[in-house]
Amino acid sequence: EDLSLIRDATIFIHKNGLILFSEGYCHPAGKLICNIIYIPDPEGEKEIFGLPYRSIIKKEEGGEEAWINYETQLEIYRKLAPEAQAGKPPYARFKCQFDLSDLIGFVDHRRSLKQARRLSGEVDEAIRNVAGMLGIHPDTIGVTGSLSLGNLKTAHDFDLVFYGTVDESWKIVNQIYQIVEDPRRQVFEMGMLWAIRFYDDWGNMICPFFSYTDPSEIPLKDFTMEVEEEQAGLEGTVVNDRHTFYMPSVLKLEETRIEGHPDLTTLPLILYHGGLRGEYKVGDRVRARGSLVRIASGKDNYPAFLCTNLTETEKVATGDGN
């Protein structure tokens, strides 16, 4: 796979050893919008490329993994790579922007899983099982996270990337929604219930990501964004959730109320983070704090509402789509 399209959830390696995780599909020319997920650390407990690393997005707390919030992550990023905070677009508020020329490699989702399956019969069996359970071919699945970097010790915790059209991916997501109706199959981790993480029939924890195979379906691929109003408040009802399980999640809202903007009764809500993928569905009433922005993409120019932190939205009423 080449880099003509930088896909969401792709791991890159920086020349100084930082492990990066791409965010979304829109990256300014010559740049990568990403999070730093692992850093070299002599005392780190994660082995990558034969060297000790540690996570800077998770921490141990009370014997369990806990989430490091976005604000704290950003403080860490500023200390580690202050140059990666310069000139960022608005949607990268809690992220980094690195020069592609400073990266020395990337990890292809599907090739990595193919190699992991070749090296580990346990991984191969687990992937065949989950593919059969969901009615898809194993070769349409990729992997990200530490497993994609060769850590085969996490063979019961999979960060899987499902490739397909939006319609094909919805067939998977609808099955996941049915699966997690069973409380025993739900994933409550790092202080929150995850909408589309689940335990499969063999007890493996699956964290799914979804990757577009038809680039024309990507709603936010080549665009620019300008902030028109910060610290804005919004309330609206989801009427289209077609891209809810992707990063970014793009949700069409109607019956929208934004203080000072009575004319904006319908617009897209953009969640430019991966923390609430699959959370919001048609009929949900959503309250948000964020920025009123303007999107320019080709001949299109339209207002939208941007949230960059999972704490900026809440579901105030549940719709029929749940």
Topology:
Layout: E1 11-14, E2 19-22, E3 31-40, E4 46-48, E5 51-55, E6 58-61, E7 64-67, H1 70-80, E8 96-99, E9 103-107, H2 109-119, H3 121-134, E10 141-143, E11 157-164, H4 166-179, E12 186-189, E13 192-199, E14 205-212, E15 224-243, E16 249-258, E17 267-271, E18 285-297, E19 300-307, E20 313-317
Helix pairs in contact: 2-3
Outline:
The protein has 322 residues and is an alpha+beta fold. The protein has helices at 70-80, 109-119, 121-134, 166-179; strands spanning 11-14, 19-22, 31-40, 46-48, 51-55, 58-61, 64-67, 96-99, 103-107, 141-143, 157-164, 186-189, 192-199, 205-212, 224-243, 249-258, 267-271, 285-297, 300-307, 313-317.
User: What proportion of the residues is helical, as a percent range?
Assistant: 10-25%
Taking Cα atoms only, what radius of gyration do you get, to the nearest Å? Answer: 19 Å
Overall 3D geometry? Answer: globular
Overall tally of structural domains: 3
Enumerate how many helices there are, as a single number.
4
First CA to last CA: what distance?
Answer: 36 Å
What is the ordering of alpha helices and beta strands? Answer: EEEEEEEHEEHHEEHEEEEEEEEE
Q: What structural category arises from helix and sheet content?
A: alpha+beta
| Average of pLDDT | 95
Strand proportion: 35-45%
Per DSSP E runs of 2 or more residues, the count of β-strands stands at 20
Largest sheet: 7 strands, antiparallel
Query: Which consecutive residue ranges, at least 5 long each, have pLDDT under 50?
Result: none
